Amino acid sequence: MDPEYLSQLQKVQITLDIAKQLRYFEGPNGKVNLFNQEYTFVPKLKKIFQDYIHSDKQFKGTIPFEEINKIIEYRLPVRSDKKPLFVIRM
Asked: Which burial class, exposed, middle or buried, applies to 45 when counting CB atoms under 10 A from its CB (0-12, 13-18, 19+)?
């Protein structure tokens, strides 16, 4: 049986889960809001989320997190048999 395609609502839930994790990121000194517009990756990520929600293709790639000199790797699936990935690479 073929895996189901994710609905637009399911894609919204995936992006909201990622945004929530970023808003309440547990740093070494406590919680930090990494979904803050002051960070250069946030507008890029919001655009990726918007395009993903309205698309029928998988989104994957990297975004530089310039403020801390790290790379964010992401994979946003279109099928239910794939899990989303969102990692800040150290």
From this structure: buried
Sequence ranges of the domains in the chain: 8-89
Q: What is the mean pLDDT of each run of 10 residues along the chain (90 residues)?
A: 88 98 93 95 98 97 96 97 94
Q: What is the pTM of this model?
A: 0.92
Residues whose CB falls within 8 Å of the CB of residue 45, separated by 6 or more in sequence, listed in order: 63, 72, 74
Dihedral sign computed on CA atoms, order 87, 32, 40, 10: positive
Residues 6+ apart with CB under 8 A from 37: 43
Q: How far is CA 89 from the centre of its chain?
A: 13
